[in-house]
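Translate structure to sequence.
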């Protein structure tokens, strides 16, 4: 990435997923990147997005390592305990909605809270994988209640954090990233995998889009090509 300082430091949360691991691979190959830290359920200590203390314990060792120029949170889930997205309001269950909010909003908010202080001053980027279905304005088909609501909820958290952080560092960038439809276990039940992006292709285009972003004082919601998505 050319917009970040030479020897920039990166952190990828959710690094064992299809997209998270592709981020780690691409950043490791970038000669300008001095190092990539990674955290996932498979690293030690691992974390559980449903448990605040677990998240804080897993992030604690990072606080003594210095700041990061780029942080990517690639966590999230669409299918929860074997239950896929609802097709109608009648199918919504409080337990499923609560689980979606924990995994896609509350857990990532705890991550955000703990990692924002680790962002370096001057130009730095905090990117969270999001989804186009998290856009309230772009909702044309309905359905997917819990997933939509949880993604939209975190979009608000990210926007609010961006406004607060801008007062401390006007060069900070917060962004919700829509990776496109990527070949992965998450998308497999819903789309023909032959018509999807590879994780590597998606990540390369997302990194190029991040490189082009200009600090605005607000969070930005973009797709993998860099095109803006309405909140």
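Result:
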């Amino acid at each position: 990435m050319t917009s970040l300082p030479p020897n920039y430091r990166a952190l990828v949360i959710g690094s064992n997923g299809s997209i998270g691991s592709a981020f780690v691979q691409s950043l490791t190959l970038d000669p300008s990147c001095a190092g990539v830290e990674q955290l996932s359920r498979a690293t030690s200590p691992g974390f559980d997005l449903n448990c605040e203390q677990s998240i804080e314990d897993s992030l604690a060792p990072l606080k003594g390592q210095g700041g990061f120029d780029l942080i990517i949170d690639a966590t999230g889930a669409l299918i929860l305990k074997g239950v896929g997205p609802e097709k109608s309001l009648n199918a919504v269950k409080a337990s499923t909605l609560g689980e979606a909010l924990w995994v896609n909003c509350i857990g990532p908010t705890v991550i955000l809270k703990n990692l924002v202080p680790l962002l370096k001053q001057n130009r730095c980027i905090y990117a969270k994988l999001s989804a186009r279905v998290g856009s309230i304005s772009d909702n044309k088909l309905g359905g997917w209640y819990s997933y939509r609501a949880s993604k939209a909820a975190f979009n608000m958290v990210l926007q609010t954090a961006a406004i607060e952080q801008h007062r401390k560092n006007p060069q900070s960038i917060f962004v919700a990233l829509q990776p496109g439809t990527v070949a992965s276990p998450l998308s497999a039940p819903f789309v023909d995998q032959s018509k999807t992006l590879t994780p590597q292709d998606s990540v390369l285009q997302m990194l190029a889009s991040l490189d082009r972003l200009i600090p605005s004082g607000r969070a930005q919601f973009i797709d993998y090509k860099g095109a803006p998505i309405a909140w």
